[in-house]
Amino acid sequence: MPAQRRSDRRQEIVREFAALIKEEGLERASVTRLAARLETSTSLIVHYFPRKEQLVAATVDYVLLRYEEAFEERHPEIVSPLERLTRLLTLLFTEEWQGLFDSSTYYACLYLTARSEVVRERWAKMQNRFVGVASRTLEDCVAAGAIPPCDTEAVADYIVCLDSGIGDFMLAFPGDERHVRLRSLALGMLAGELGIELAERR
Questions:
Q1: CATH number at residue 9
Q2: Are residues 29 and 60 in the same domain?
Q3: Same structural domain for residues 62 and 160?
Q4: Which of 90, 107, 165, 183 makes the best surface tag, with the fewest CB within 10 Å?
Q5: Are residues 64 and 142 in the same domain?
Q6: Which of 84-98, 138-152, 185-199 has the highest mean pLDDT?
Q7: Are residues 27 and 95 in the same domain?
Q8: Residue 201 falls within a domain, yes or no?
Q9: What is the pLDDT of residue 119?
Q10: What is the pLDDT of residue 177?
Q11: Distant-in-sequence contacts of 17-22, Cβ < 8 A, 24+ apart
Q12: 72-111 as b/e, with b when 16 or more CB fall inside 10 Å?
């Protein structure tokens, strides 16, 4: 089988597995159900992914790619380091960002980080990429004199943790007005720490 066709087939399997998790939950997302959804045999899926753990790991990679693509689409290359930082922060703490991804798929993958070292490593890779984007943006701002010197890596870790925590809260309390106060508080704390002004957005 040509390499491109093999790659396309793998992507199709992963994409449909992510959709299956979204629709039926991780506990019901079996290889048998996936094969039925794809109208193919379980042996074909096993050919590409001999163990379910490998399929789940590939699905985490797929979720990671979607996050990165969504972020890049909304965070184009901007010359001003301070404007890049402002765009980054005001994007992360919004319903627009939190609502981009299906929560059932996201948390199913997160649950598996406690059960599979392979999945945990993929998840850590995703978190580290976002921390890296934030850290580099902060470093550029420090170099440009737009913000005072700081531990950019620690601040980047804090930003990503805040975003994850607010996302968890929004899932537990959908439609709650406390989301607005949380975003305002998070932005205010970061703005004060970094010595910048941030315009809030929903």
A1: 1.10.10
A2: no
A3: yes
A4: 165
A5: yes
A6: 138-152
A7: no
A8: no
A9: 79
A10: 83
A11: 17/55, 17/59, 18/59, 18/62, 18/63, 18/105, 21/59, 21/104, 21/105, 21/108, 22/102, 22/104, 22/105
A12: eeeeeeeeebbebbbbbbbbbbbeebbeeebbebbebbbe
Same domain, 70 and 163: yes
Same domain for 130 and 149? Answer: yes
Q: pLDDT tens for residues 97-151?
A: 766 666 777 777 788 888 888 878 888 887 888 899 899 999 999 999 999 999 9
If asked whether residues 110 and 72 sit together in one domain, one would say: yes
When divided into structural domains, the chain yields a total of: 2
CB 55 within 8 A of CB 45: yes
Is there a domain that residue 37 lies in?
Answer: yes
- Which two structure tokens, joined as six digits, stand for 7? 């790659």
The overall average pLDDT reported for the chain is 84
**Burial group, residue 17, by CB count within 10 angstroms (0-12, 13-18, 19+):** buried
Supply the pLDDT for residue 5. 74
Look-up of token digits 């299956």? 20
Q: pTM value?
A: 0.75
Residue 70: Cβ within 10 Å count = 15
Domain that holds residue 150: 55-194
**Cα distances (angstroms) measured from residue 50 to each of 44, 57, 77:** 10, 12, 40
